[in-house]
Fold:
Amino acid sequence: IYGFAMIWEYFSMVFVRSALSVHFFPRLTFLYFLLYHIYFYSVPYGYFDVALIPLFLFMFHAMLYTILGLEAPNAARGVVNVECPREVYNRLSWHEPVAALPAEWTIFLPLNSRLSPLHDRVSDTPTNDANNNDRREDDGNVATG
Structure:
């Protein structure tokens, strides 16, 4: 059981990056884990070692669905990319030094922030386009003139 929890944790650190998979994978993991424990505590002389095999297969199914059904379409749309490796993350309330190791990612901390890529942010500074026309970007609208 502890090995399964460790696999779930490592999988979530590496592959669970989009908002849909962050919403889906921990809940399904908890459901599978809860169902195994209901069987474990409700049957006095059950086949607990054999019951780990369906738990592993369901866990593998959830991982495949998360990668193929949720992560791959979001990576194709560009929601998750090199610039924006995670769509949602934990904003810690304490200060971290710049040279410190990065904060730990886990499925057990609540998510409270959404990452927006640098190029999706709106700036109010005028820029020059290819035709040397000044333009100003406000609220996503581009005016040239």
